Structures are given as structure tokens and as C-alpha cells.
């Protein structure tokens, strides 16, 4: 799980360097299209076509997946990686809290709200956070919530290959926008190798590692480890992108992590809904 997180954040760091060259739609297209090709070679999803009853949820799952990647890369364009991931984490956190009836979850909700208050209106390295970037990161969180909900339904309706079909749908939805904006630049010698690296580091490798980890971890430990992601993202942003954030923003990230440990650590982990949020 830790290696998967590091891989994902390394891929996100490369993606952030590509966004100024081909835009967020182009970068998203590279990641989704190449990831879809890799999974198609590995899983050969044409051997298990979704049934008519499964099509609507698989379609919703794919659209949520594509939109989540698209708006997250829009957020990365203007705000630090660690803050973007911290804000995006509101999605799975909201799903966990909404499905719970425990009073203690009010405490985790308070931590989450406090974390957001520390993150959103604060200046980073003397520069105020871009409101649009903050909005895109929160939108990515909302898409992540939909991804979880429809991913579980798609997994139950169509099994493990639902993930590959969802990724194919996501690529089909986003690719026309990316090709329209970036055109042939996506296949240039400068960009395409980076796109392959993004797809492997942000999707193929962490997906494989997470599937292995899910077979060995309890639900509580899985949720606790997942909650480290905002801090890993902030450290990756510092090490790879020289992105510095304020002490108060670090406090906000810590509050979101504490809320996630409390809320997600009690969630049951299912292996039938396909890849985790790294995809």
C-alpha cells in the first residue's frame, strides 16, 4: 500500500509537469487511454461483456472515473499536490460518514471540517490559493464519492472486469476533449513517454499493488493506510515539485487524515469493485 501511494504521487508529479504542455484534458487522455490499453492486454475484457442490466451502472462508473481524473488534473494546474489530494479526500470521507450511524463519527466530521477550514482560505508560500483550483479539487472529491458508490454497484453487477470496462468508458469520454485540445502533441517524442510513465505509475502499478494488499489487510488497517495519502502527496510535492505549504495547511492535512483514520478505518473493504481510487 505504501509503495502504491508513492507510485501514484510520483505519477501525479509527472502529470503536473505535463499539464502546462498539453493541458489537463490532454494529460488525462494520456493517462486513461494508455491505462485502458494496459488493462485490456492483461484482462481481455471482451471475454466478459456487461449484461444489459449492468450497462447503466458500469457506464456511470466509467463517467465518474473519467471526470474524477479530469477535474483533479484541473486542480493540479493551480494548487499544490498535497492540498489537492487533501481536498479530494472529502469524497470518500463523506461516503464513509454518510453510511455510518455511530455518534463517534461526529468527532471525525468535526476534524474534517476543521481540516478544510485550515486548507481552503489560507495562503501557501505567501500566495493565496487559486479559488478555481480549490473548486476543482472539491469537485474531484465529489466524483470520487460517485466513483466509490457506482464502483461497488458495477463490481457486484459485473465482477472484476467492471473496472476495465469503466476505464475504457472513461477514456472514450475524455479522449475527444484531450485530442481536440492537444492534437498530435500527445504523440510527440517529448510527451508520449511521460504519458506512459503517468499511466504506469498512477494506474497500472498501484492498481496491481493495491489488489495484492487487499488480500492481506484488515479493513481497519487498509483505511488507516489510505488515510496517509494526503501526507504522502504533500511530501511528494515538496520533494519532486518543490511545493511548500504553510504550517497551518499541514495542520489541515493532519486533521483530514485523523478524520479519515476514524471514519474509513471502520469501513469494510470489498475486493469485487475493481481498482481503488488510484485509477
Number of strands: 2
Shape summary: globular
What do the pLDDT scores average to?
Answer: 83
Proportion of residues in extended strands: under 5%
Q: How many distinct helices?
A: 11
**Unreliably modeled segments:** 268-279
Task: Describe what you observe in this structure.
With 279 residues, this protein is mostly helical. The protein has one domain (2-264). The protein has eleven helices and two strands; from the N terminus they run H-H-H-H-H-E-E-H-H-H-H-H-H. The chain has a two-stranded antiparallel sheet. Strand 1 and strand 2 (127-128) form a beta hairpin. Helix 2 (55-76) runs antiparallel to helix 6 and helix 4 packs parallel to helix 11. The longest helix has 42 residues, at 2-43. Mean pLDDT is 83; it is low at 268-279.
How are the SSEs placed, and which strands pair?
Elements: H1 2-43, H2 55-76, H3 81-88, H4 90-98, H5 105-119, E1 123-124, E2 127-128, H6 131-158, H7 162-182, H8 192-214, H9 219-226, H10 229-241, H11 247-264
Antiparallel strand pairs: 1-2
Helix pairs in contact: 1-2, 1-7, 1-8, 1-10, 2-6, 2-7, 3-6, 3-10, 4-6, 4-11, 5-11, 9-11, 10-11
